[in-house]
Design brief:
Layout lengths: L8 E8 L2 H11 L2 E4 L4 E7 L2 H13 L3 E7 L2 H4 L1
Helix pairs in contact: 1-2
């Protein structure tokens, strides 16, 4: 397995921008959105690297600022 092979892995992406745009990004990509006053966290399971890149492209297209991408361990991914 290569470094870029993500498999079925849960991710958390922290973004800044309009909350309704962040919620739209989450819904388009099949992720959950948790909104706080400053940032939104998009969480969910992604099947492969192409899906992760798709989420990143959606974030960019919606003019959201990507703050962090984090691969969640099994305990966090539950």
């Amino acid at each position: 397995m290569g470094v870029l092979d993500v498999g079925e892995v849960r991710y958390a992406l922290r973004v800044r921008g309009q909350p309704h745009d962040a919620k739209l990004a989450a819904s388009l990509e099949g992720l959950e959105a948790t909104i706080d006053p400053v940032q939104t966290v998009l969480r969910g399971r992604l099947p492969d690297q192409a899906a992760l890149l798709g989420v990143l492209a959606t974030v960019r297209l919606l003019d959201l600022e990507l703050v962090e991408v984090r691969r969640l361990c099994q305990a966090e991914g539950q």
